[in-house]
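This part of the workshop introduces the protein records we will be handling. Each record describes a single protein and holds just a pair of labelled lines. Instead of coordinates, the fold is spelled out as a row of discrete tokens. To make this concrete, we reproduce a full record directly below:
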Amino acid sequence: MPFHNRKTPRAKWYDYTSAGTYFVTICTKDRVHYFGEIIDGEKKLNELGKYATNHRKQIPNHYPFVCMPNYVYGIILIDDHIKNNNTTVGM
């Protein structure tokens, strides 16, 4: 499905291939709570949220990650060693 009216959130002046620390948030379409709910101020993940969280644990621990009911977020660190060795970096 093409994104005809999609605006990029990226800064035009920044080189995103450079080494650095990136905070990444991925939201669900229309912010629907696919991963669980907030009940009495507490996050309650459903099976999909637990699945996403458990599979994230396969990624090295130095990539912090949080699963919320309608989004996931994490921090990705790309250093020159990783960049220069063509290693894929994931959240």
User: Anything to note?
Assistant: Residues 20-84 form one domain. The chain has one domain: 20-84.
